[in-house]
Design brief:
The chain is of the alpha+beta class and about 575 residues long. It has two domains: about 425 residues, Di-copper center containing domain from catechol oxidase (di-copper center containing domain from catechol oxidase); about 140 residues, Sandwich (Jelly Rolls). Helix content is about 25%, strand content about 15%. It is built from 13 helices and 17 strands. It is globular. GO terms for molecular function: catechol oxidase activity; metal ion binding.
Amino acid sequence: MASLHLPCATTPSSQTRSSSRPVFAKPSHFITHAKRDHRLQVSCSAAENQNDSSSQGKVDRRNMLLGLGGLYGASNLVSAPGASANPIKPPELDKCGTATNLNNNTQLDINCCPPLSQNIVDYRLPPVFQMKIRPSAHRVSPEYIFKYNMAMDRMRRLPKDDPRSFMQQANIHCAYCNGAYDQPGQGTLDLQVHNSWLFFPFHRWYLYFYERILGKLIGDPTFALPFWNWDNPKGMTIPPIFVDPKSALYDEKRNQANLPPAVVDLGMTGNTDPLQVVANNLTIMYNEMIRGNSDVYDFMGQPYREGTPVNPGPGASERGSHTAVHVWVGDPRQPTGEDLGNFYSAGRDPLFYCHHANVDRMWSLWQYFLPSKTVPDKRITDQDFLNAAFLFYDENAQLVRVTVKDSLDNLRMGYDYERIDLPWLDYRPPPQTVAARVTRAGKSASKPETVFPLTLDKIVRVLVPKTKKGKADELLVLENISVDTTKFLKFDVFINDEDDNITELDKAAYVGTYAQVPHKTANKSATTSIRLKLTDLYDDMDVADDDTVLVTLVPRHQGPGVTIGGIKIIENPKPAPPKTS
């Protein structure tokens, strides 16, 4: 791969979605070929004035919070919590069992369980007197790098039985994500924090305490974790601070072919053209964050309650860019993709926390800064969501109980993110007229009732009837997706695609993806469904008046691991009233 220099992109100051199309087919103005520059220094005007209200289209929430003395409450974001029926309860640490390597379903020969403590305290967020600003990892100063290295070195040197030590922190992900915990009072039913509405809140709390522990170890309560800015072309390489073998941030178990200057492939398409990969990445981000969501659950993940099986359904970001980065960094030389490519070992790579800081940043952007026309209400007021709880050790090695409702506002938790341009914000694909080619392809396409259920081991094209002619608010539903949970799986979905080049995603025909990092279930399988919004796609492809659309399913990484039970197009249902008691 050619060495790249990725200059910073610029985003219009207005954050309202424009009806105009991009003036480029490939993001060549984001990239220039140059000599390798490990420093990757950037000068972005958006970052120079981090309190500029126009930098992301909203009044600066940091100033509002600090102006209120840190008392900006979650009540401004969600309805007041009442009695909850069946939220997920925190695990019983004394019943923690052996975790499982999900790639081969063998029990691990390590203990992922945390130290036991009988003293559990309900955690109260402390007042915010000074906001922590999490910086872009590609833009940090030498002073910051020194401080971060020192904090990580001290964390690694803590006694192994100290819950704040690096391995104990890494084991949090192993235990919560690989079957070491059962749901309390539910027999052997697993507790899992992925593939549901718990994904964002759990990882936010996880990073919150990890960050506070690092700050405590160096005596700096203002220390903030960096985020890997993989949604911006300038940040689409592994941050240089993580590739120095002498650094406490280094992990040798990474894909050596994907070290800088390799460009992260959020689509996992295998395309080797860096310009095309960046174009794919920006398209993926636009789809995940704006185009593909019809309600709050499409982004956050589906409801997951006490007594119900794992994997009700991941949100767009979790099953897309989040999963792709895990697998892209994981080391193919290792038996099962360690470190980042396997849930049990992901936390052993310091890059994990930097990656998830950007995942958390996506949640914050989606909540507060993105256009709200398609999903006007981004709150979840369901009490089973708000009252779901987890256990963590804080910076003082005190075991604390936390709830989802206290994680809904990152400012109330005392941190924000450096302002960085969002080049994907207006990266809506150009219009695409495909009638002639689709007509020819449609003649050989099957009808759903003749091919489903099917094992997705090759490209499949199927004609799916719409609910009605005319411009409609519709969803494509892939239902009863049965997956082998021990494998990395991914497939992409296209509508009326006239192009046979399946590694190019920067087109209106690309509608979304399904992907998973291996995870444990009782019988190595799970069943889920995904919904993909079609309303904007109909405008982009001028197919609103057609009776049917041609759906193409493209397997990327399989195993033979995916069976799809059915496919249909439905009208976008009106949201159900929230569960309040």
